[in-house]
Each structure stands twice: as structure tokens, then as C-alpha cells.
Amino acid sequence: ASFVLSSIAVRFVFPAVSMESTSFWIVRTSPVSMSSFLWSKFATGFVPIVFFATFLTIAANEMLSVHPFLKVLTAVAVVFMSLALVGLAAGLGAQYPRFGAENVNQIAGSYGGVVFMVTAVAFICIEIALLAWPTSIFLFYEFRNRPIPGPRQLAMAAGVISALSLSVGVFYFSMRRGIRALTALAG
After folding, report:
1. What is the CB neighbour count within 10 angstroms for residue 169?
2. b/e map of 57-91 (b: 16 or more CB within 10 Å)?
3. How far apart are CA 144 and CA 125, in angstroms?
4. Cα separation of 40 and 114, whole Å?
5. Which of 8, 34, 54, 105 has its CA at 20 to 30 Å from residue 143's CA atom?
């Protein structure tokens, strides 16, 4: 779901700033801050993407008869990954605008679009690795019908907290850098 999410984000969220094209001067001269402008681009992309990704994850988990613990874990993880990937797309789209593009595909295929996709794939791989550890611990003890020892529960919690923290960090720093880039562009 996260790879599908990143491909949707590069197509619809990443080019959002660049789509202003020749009318970006209106945004620059309006009383709206660049922060509000970028947050509106983020919100417009985040709402449908998080619903789509969450629905896709829950539906797949139901079809595969996944254990309830893993259903909750994957649903929470995909919400946080949506936050990070949409924030990354909006932030990098603001850092690498391409106002002269003739169509959206040129924007998504630009240098900034490639940077987004490479960064998104690296983020997804790290996120999956961080979540694989608690999942493997859970499944190891679940298949053996044994209780999970305290230290293993702490390891599981550390993996989940690390993954969620990474998502929040990617979101925060991407949006912050995007706002800074737009402010410098409008300056």
C-alpha cells in the first residue's frame, strides 16, 4: 500500500505547487502566508490519500484473515506513512517547483520527482524494517501459543515507536523545508 501511496503522491501532491504555474505571482502577492499555502496543498492531498491507503490496507487484511493485532498495527502504520509521504511530496514539490512545465507528467518526471521517489522508497524500506521486528516477535510467540516475555514486548514497542517517530520526523522536516523554500521563492 505504501508503494501505491507514493506513486499517487508523486502524481497528485508533488506537482501541486508547480501547477500554480504562471499564476504563482498571485499567491506571492496575496495576504496568504507561504506556510498556509503549503498546508492547504498538503491537506488537499492528505485527506483522500489517507482514506484510500487505509481502506486498501484494511480490505487486504480482511481478505487475508490477518490477526487482529496485525490489523491494528498495519492500519496505524499506514496512516503515519501517509502523513510522511504526503508531507514529503508537498515539501519536495515546494523545494523543486517546475513552473514552466507543459503538463503534470513533466513535473512528476523532473529532478524533484525523482528525488521524491528515491527518498520515498528509502523511507518505506526503513519503515518496513522497523515494523518487521515487532511483527516477527509477535508471530514467533503467537504461532507457539506462548506469552511474549517483557523484554520482547519492550523491543516490540521500541520498533513501533521508532517507525512512528520516523514518519512524524519525515513529515515535519519535509514540510518545514518546503515552507522555507517557498518563503525564499516569494521573498
Report:
1. 11
2. bbeebeeeebeeebbebbebbbbbbbbbbbbbbbb
3. 28
4. 23
5. 54
The distance of Cα 153 from the centroid of its chain, to the nearest Å, equals: 27
Amino acid at residue number 44: T
Long-range contacts of 121-125 (CB under 8 A, 24+ apart): 121/3, 121/6, 123/84, 123/85, 123/88, 123/166, 123/170, 124/2, 124/3, 124/6, 124/81
**How does pLDDT run across 117-148, given as a tens digit for each residue?**
999 999 999 999 999 999 999 999 999 999 99
Amino acid at residue number 149? P
Residue 103: pLDDT over 80: no
Decide if pLDDT at 85 tops 80: yes
Measure CA 81 to chain center. 4
Query: Can you give the pLDDT at residue 187?
Result: 67
The SS3 assignment for 87 reads helix
Q: What is the pTM of this model?
A: 0.91
